[in-house]
Amino acid sequence: MAFEISIRSLRKGDIAQLEAMERRFFPTPYTAWTWMRERRNSLSRTFVAFPGGDAGMADLVGYINFWIVVDEAQLHRLAVDEGFRRRGVAMELIRHMLRYLAERAVATVQLEVRQRNIHAVRLYERMGFAMQGRRRGYYEETGEDALLLTGVVNDILNARNGESRR
Known about the structure:
By secondary structure, this protein is of the alpha+beta class. It is built from five helices and seven strands, in the order E-H-H-E-E-E-H-E-H-E-E-H.
């Protein structure tokens, strides 16, 4: 990875930064209340990324949020601060999630991504996620379609450097 990050579980003190990032990057952002609810939800996991070896003294540069239901995970949120994009942060957050899921015998990850989010679609496909379908008009605020992608946890982890398709 070109840019070193530290990843750890979400803490209560991170919520203000998450909320600020949400407002910048999502048309329908999660609020502080939503993040508090996610912290209490036994199905939900959120990991946050910080620059270098700093696991919390600097501003966070990205985060990933997903739910685990039996042997399946649903990726809900993945965001990287604009100043840290294209440095491998998103890929490392996804790899961290996949290792976490593998340790818990979770078989697959499902996600929805905006059709126009080409960079995200390419990243997921490069890592080994495959398109399974489309939800037409899924995003109410724009009427945009959601692409449905699925990844097999161990297949992605076992692929060379987590990049099975280029």
